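Entry for the shared binder. Reason: the reviewer on the internal report wants the predicted structure included alongside the sequence.
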Amino acid sequence: MAELRYAEALHAALREEMRRDPSVVLFGEDVGTYGGVFKVSKDLMAEFGRERVRDTPISEQAIAGLAIGAAMLGLKPVAEIMYIDFLPLCLDQLLNQASVLPFIWGDQVKLPFVLRTQGGAGAGAGAQHSKSLEAMVAHIPGLKVVMPTTPADAKGLLTAAIRDPNPVVFIEHKFLYNTRGPVPDGEHVVPLGKAAVVRAGRDATIVASSRMTLESLKAAEMLAAEGIEAEVIDLRTLRPLDTATIVESVKRTHRCAVVNEGWRFGGYGAELAATIGELAFGWLDQPIARLGALDMPVPYSQPLEMATIPTAEKIAAAVRAMAR
């Protein structure tokens, strides 16, 4: 094990996979000479050269299209969209090309590429650089959607995503880049589609992902001081969704809260709540609590920004109300 920052763990996965497999290539805005806006790709151009690490023009649609074409021709591209706020600019490539080409061509073509991006609030980056749009891409059949929380999962899930034969949208959180944790040295693979129970409990289940997992763990600590033991599940992969782990937990705790940083209305939490309601309704003693961002743009002011998204205090209050 090594103690790494989240950004360093992602860098380790990229470096190790590029060393292992010469078909892995990296491109995007400022990923080469500058090393990425969050330094995830620092020094990779120096090691692997400009043929495998390329800076691109500021055109998200072109970046996504390049990833699709390169994957069709046998490469394993890792393309970066600098902020998830700009993901809609390449939505046509994802929705009408990447997600459907294997289906249209009878699975005669594979698209093994990863589209890395980052989002989330908390850094005072304003309304155009702070969104959480995971629900938008999770809605599309044919795409896998990953949101790691810990440095270890960041490395293991990115490695698995690069090796996956399907298109993967890999969503990081800007607030997590400097968080630290133990990360296995050498090859480390975390299977896509498998959630993790990161805290055991008996009184309620909290289902979250990315930064909201950390807020949920803080909420669970607050609740434990009151005698309420909450179980926390980190989804890790939004699509495919590990329904078995969630349902098993709800059957034991009989209460559930779903937490997502995206907008509450029409958000990923709504899909979670509906799925849990369908599969575990008979075991629920209370309606499912659904926490998400307020239905408004993300404010630039950090105090106002934090007021619009779920926090540990808000999560604890929702679970407390169910438990009592």
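Summary line for the report: The chain is about 35% helix and 20% strand.
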